[in-house]
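Sequence in, structure out.
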Amino acid sequence: MRNVMVTGASGYVGKNFIESYSSNYNLFTFSLLKNSIESLELQNIDVILHCAALVHKSKVKNAEYKKVNVNYPYNLAKKAKSQGVKQFVFISSIAIYGNKSLINYKTEKKPNNEYGLSKLQAEELLESLNDETFVVSIVRPPMVYGKNAPGNINRLLSLIKRTPILPFKGIKNKRNFVYIQNLLQGINHIIENKIEGDFLICDDESISTTDLIINLSKVINKRVILIRIPFFNFVLRTFKPILYDKLYSDLIIDNTKTNNILKYKTPYSLFDGLKSISKIK
């Protein structure tokens, strides 16, 4: 049984990986808040799954992004390589592409915020360490959802529970997300088979905001009425552009090449994932 060290074990992805795969691996955790990289002894570790990150927040300084999202994983990976660790799996983000409506392996990497830039810089440094003795695997997920996930789908579900009438009728965008179990099984497949490279792991289906609300209302058996309010989207785009982008714009991710490289089939449908979050309070 391989020894896997997980960073960011208190975060959503790290915590769920530990809960789901505790019987598959000997799992260890590491927190930079409690320990230093210099004090680490990694001779018995086979794989590091690096989930720790400083997420996108408006008040975070650029130096903090560089410290946590760039220097931390790079210095950890360098030490890991020097002590014989065989694989480093880095959870990156589609934020490295900026505001693109279609993402595939040919899409230009052009982040439009400091969070995305820090993830891209970390990727580039980590890829420089990849060789026949040290496999670097990079996973770029979109927004992760699932039971108790800290994301907009769960906020939308809470809104549906509270408000029977919502102004989101007829939105025809398409967006891809990733159900936590789809992401975890993809990560596990990469670790089990020691596959290097970068991967776009997401649900196979994309969905519009309108259809997302309709499906969420079905899984909690709550009737919701969707209406159009004149100029609502214009007002939202003017005063809340980030929220407007998430509700109205496209974000289509082509995971075909990833699944072909991994020789892997996404295990859960979008509706399977939506059903899993229906019990949140």
